[in-house]
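Re: weekly structure request thread

Next one in the queue (265 aa):
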Amino acid sequence: MDNEKIILNINKLFEKINIFKGDKVLVSSNILKLLIKYRNINKKFLINIIIDSLIEKIGPKGTLLFPTFNWAFCEGEDFDYNRTKSLSGSLGNLALKRKDFQRTKNPIYSFAVTGKDKEYICNLDHESCFGLNSPYGYLIENHGKKLFIDINDIYREAFTLVHVAEEAVGVSYRYLKNFSGIYIDKFKKKKHVNYKMLVRNLNLNILGRTIIDKEFDNVLIKKQAYERKNINGTSLILIDINKAYKAAIYDIKNKKGLIYPLKKK
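Done, posted below.
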């Protein structure tokens, strides 16, 4: 398959999902299936096609984000704004190398951002990874959308928005832990910084993961906040971040049992 046909196929893939001009979209992906499907194409070329197609889809008034998370800072390693790689996917790592993207400031939960609100998001100073003054808060306030590409049912394990809800509610099974270390900023200047992240309470009989029950999908569907399509073998899930956040808050506060910590046996 020639490059022009692949570009056309990727563009058609995103034409069939409800993302519009001006949308704010956070993307998580597993591009292994696409790499197998287009096995004769260069990986970097394919990723750039995906990114460029999404940029075209949201237009100049839209904003596009990719996770560039790295948890090494929590283990005592220095965070280098320009050099610390993402551990959350190939799209984020390639986006960090592109001139049209900029990285947000947090050394643990950072994002690669392009589009209309890039400067605003990348200038956010937020001590807590999941605070409402973080990029998550921006996406909630601005009715952003979360797009999962070929992640299927395990998307619930990668839906970090739930931790924003847990922090806002103040759940008993997690607490804000302080992490300190060396931060090398984009100007290559070193400084000692402190950041906080919501972590599990080791004194309780729980494991680290927060479970989102499959029934939560139906809650989102009823709220018209969940869309799932399979297009030519590629799975796309699109979630309304504002509605999902409010639904998570409601479930946690009222102990409805769809969002809960995984307990030890």
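The first strand starts at residue 24 and ends at 29. Residues 3-263 form one domain.
Next request, please.
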